[in-house]
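To assess whether ligand presence alters the predicted conformation, the chain was also submitted together with glutamine. Input:
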Amino acid sequence: MNDIVSLSLEDQIRLLEKKKISSYELTSSYLKNIEEKKDLNCFISINENALEQAEIIDDLKDRKSLIQGIPIAHKDIFCVKGQKTTCGSKMLKNFTSPYSSTVVEKLEKSQTIMLGKTNMDEFAMGSSNETSFFGKVKNPINSLKSPGGSSGGSAAAVKANMCAFATGTDTGGSIRQPASFCGITGIKPTYGRVSRWGMIAFASSLDQAGIFAKSALDSAIALEIISGFDEKDSTSINKEVPNLKNETISKMEHLIGVPKKIIENIEDENVKKNFLENINLLEKNGFKTKDIDLPFLEYSLPSYYVIAPAECSANLSRYDGIKFGYRCENPKDLEDLYVRTRSEGFGEEVKKRILIGTYCLSAGYFDAYYIKAQKIRAMITESFKNAFKNVSVIAMPTCSNEAFDLDSIQDPVKMYEQDIYTIPANLAGLPAISIPSGYKKEMPLGLQFIGNHLEEGKILNISHEFQKLTDYHV
Ligand code: GLN
């Protein structure tokens, strides 16, 4: 029964419940597949105890959770007690976490099996997975292409049937862009919906954990489990988590906002055509749409590339060679220890961002860059607020292009432009999802739905409706 790995999470749950398959069978099939597809470089580490854990779970008398016995993967940004957590960096190459993140704990409590930790851009900075210290990840659809980033390992692992679902993080698009490039579903919930405790920080006001899965319905099941208030994260939202699976399959009325000006300005004709055809499909099937205006969205990218580096420069100051992580050999004195540890331990992209961030925060430039970027952020948030007075969800493409060839983008600004349609939702803290929406030259394209604050259910619902009408996700 080797293609149990290609079944949806929903189907796997059904088979486990009926005892038609065991967690051991599922886990060993995934491990076999991971081994066979090693060349894709999706995993940084494998959990040696996965099979043993599956056996223990199979021996349990009752099912304690819906996803009990399901094998999953974690982006290597989530701390797992007693396991290596590298964040894709030489700096943390030998770091073993003394505690588990809330996301990991919640999934452990649900009796899932962690198969391993997935590859990622270093400290989640990147859109191609090329900045990982552990090498690039290849796109399972075409191994010459990038899987996207920064959570490229998780996206590729789900696409290549190496786990039932995977966790990821999205600061500016790192769940949605790789989901789009690999032709799977990826959801970033509302900022504060999922605890950031134990998730290595990049830009704390933007970072949010989420899920990669085969469909909106599978994503809903997993997202509900990792969501919820956590007193260990001061930005966590203290609101009850709805039954996301029920919301996903329920009958809902939608009015889909389409930001006309943004769509008119899409440069890639294929991306534009694909988007408009999908809107058309939804309209033909009774979904109402409305042209909307989202002013200031064009300033999202510059605003993000001030705020994210500024926050990263503060967050990454903890890697000093003293407390944990990499330390240079034979330092002459303390200054030498700091300088060489950080120069040798961080990769080029990370160092560039620390420098940009430090510059933006320095006296004399703070008002001109950081404060201005925050003002723009407030205006963008306001734009969305106004839009959501009239519509229930907003539709946009996920990316301006399909997956590009590995090593083909040398200009950093071109790489940053990857996030042009994903960053606005992060700046406003809104939930957003990417679902497969068709192809350009055999590579998948993604359709994005952005929801209002805490309305994950609505974007999951419309995505599910879209997936009932199409088969790009199967
Ligand atoms: N690609 C973006 C960046 O490099 C977003 C990364 C992310 O969401 N973690 O900052």
